[in-house]
Amino acid sequence: MHPPLSPSxxxxxxxxxxLLLGACAAPVPSSRVHTxxxxxPVEPLQRSATLxxxxxxxxxxxxxxxxxxxxxxLRATDALPSxxxxxxxxxxxxxxxxxxxAAADLPEERRKKLAAIDLDEYRYYYTKYGTPLAYVRTLDxxxxxxxxxxxxxxxxxxxxxxxxxxxLLASLGAHTVGIDPDSYxxxxxxxSADQGLVAPAAGIYRGPAxxxxxxxxxxxxxxxxxxxxxxxxxxxxxxxxxxxxRGYLKPERRTNKRQLIDLGVTDEVFxxxxxxxxxxxxxxxxxxxxxxxxxxxxxxxxxADARSPFTREQFTKAGLSVVALDVEDHDFVRxxxxxxxxxxxxxxxxxxxxxxxxxxxxxxxxxxx
Length: 369
Hints:
Layout: H1 15-21, H2 49-61, H3 68-75, E1 86-91, E2 96-98, H4 100-104, H5 108-111, E3 115-119, H6 121-126, H7 136-143, E4 154-158, H8 164-170, E5 175-180, H9 183-188, E6 196-198, E7 210-216, H10 223-231, E8 235-241, H11 246-249, H12 267-277, E9 278-290, H13 312-317, E10 320-328, H14 330-339, H15 354-357, E11 359-367
Parallel strand pairs: 4-5, 4-8, 5-7, 8-9
Antiparallel strand pairs: 1-2, 1-3, 6-7, 9-11, 10-11
């Protein structure tokens, strides 16, 4: 969940920023489960360009992954299925997106103004934010703080941004829940087969199937979102990547409201909801990437302030023990960025100096009671 595509939280980033930042639920009740096809891995020559790109990125990242769960997460990419193209609709005035069914329910006059868009396999896995494999770093950090296997874990992602990493974790036995208010994601992942049980990653994991649940709206502001999160919890791990930034929630300079995030509740209410969603001893991990902040005489970049929007005192008051607060992770993220080509354009030419224009901070808290 990033700043809004009104009324959601995501801005329309430039291509440069896309390249740069490219950011334990109970089993889903049987009435809501749709078993995803058990797609066997296809031979490399038969794989699509998108799946080949994901596999190449996984190979490039393997030397950097520091944990067994990180390595298995990358290896699971070989079991990702091909996805058929799908349609959605966009309102260019409001910047809202609609699935075919949601568009059909609109008044005729508004429906006529919608533009049909085709969403291919690349958009399914990369959306607007780049490779889903950047989550490998959050798994390494979680592993270094006691989470050594995702089998059977209940994992919540606040502002999930893409289904790719959720499917990979589910293929390793995790029950993943992605929450996000972005209408683009709701329109993109509108098919019943996008959620439910996920076949184990062949040759990597042989345990019980994991699952993916997606919920679109504001949590914990709205009752229905709170019900979904509670029903599928509690969680051993809550992730949030490139969403909970101080620049988005508490900008230091005036900026366009479309670039900001409004949680809709106070910090205290939000953090208490996090604490209640976690199991005792469960972790919340905030991982934020950022470019260099603009000069004082240039427009302020909210996404460039990657610090936690919450203080140590606020975490502690909410019953969350601070394990790490705004720890610099610049070196790793620059090596990761170079591995997946964040420094290059589509022609392979170097256009960005990651050593001066890519930064990362992470914060980890643990429920104490």
